[in-house]
Amino acid sequence: MDGQDARLLALFKQRDEQAIAETQAIYGSVCLGIAKHILRNEQDAEECVNDAMMSVWQQIPPAEPQSFRAYLMTVTRNLAASRLEQRNAQKRGGGVQPVSIESDAPDLTAPGADPAEHAEASELSALLERFLNALPQRDRIIFIERFWFYKPEAEIAANYGLSPGNVRVKLSRMKKKLAACLKKEGYHE
Question: Is residue 106 situated within a structural domain?
Fold first, then answer.
């Protein structure tokens, strides 16, 4: 963890309210970008970032993330995805549906979380990291942009000079490779 993140984490642990203001100043625009890609609504994205800051305030301590930045972005992403899911449930089919390779995983950072689940999640995370690192860089970025940041295939295609159909095929092939990798390691569909 770099010095800036260590300092922010220390402020949160000390319950210093300056932690939120400094986190907002340093990472607010990054978090807003993540939320806007998922929610496609400026006001909802801003509310989501505020909720993320409050959630991190409530979670640290006892949570002690190894990477504060990654932790904050994950909280933001998960809150935005949850908000999108709620919004779409209210509309019953309206809007953009999230595309995810995740299941409804429990919060492994919560007090009383099952250590066995945490160990399995860590193993799965390491497997996913190995899978992504084995991909060519552009494919890895396309995969992450689609399944982590919820970017539309058309936007990804435009960014890389590809057709949306080409992106769709690439993603389909990568998902099949990931499924085979998971099956080989003993994870079942």
Answer: no
Task: Tell me, yes or no, whether 180 lies in a domain.
Answer: yes
Sign, CA dihedral 136-137-141-144, equals positive
C-alpha radius of gyration, the chain, whole number: 18
- Burial class from Cβ neighbours inside 10 Å (0-12, 13-18, 19+) for residue 145 reads buried
Find the Cα–Cα–Cα–Cα dihedral 93, 99, 100, 103, rounded to 10°: 20
Q: Would you say residue 187 lies in a domain? A: yes
Percent of the chain with pLDDT over 90: 51
Residue 109, in any domain of the structure: no
Mind listing the pLDDT tens digit for each residue in 29-88?
Answer: 999 999 998 898 999 999 999 999 999 999 998 888 888 998 999 999 999 988 988 887
Cβ atoms of 48 and 83 within 8 Å: the answer is yes
Contact between 81 and 102 under an 8 Å Cβ cutoff? The reply is no
The number of CA neighbours under 13 Å toward the Cβ of 73 is 14
Residues ≥6 apart with Cβ < 8 Å to 145: 151, 156, 159
* Residue 140 token pair: 């890895």
Q: Among residues 13, 59, 51, which one has the least CA distance to residue 32?
A: 51
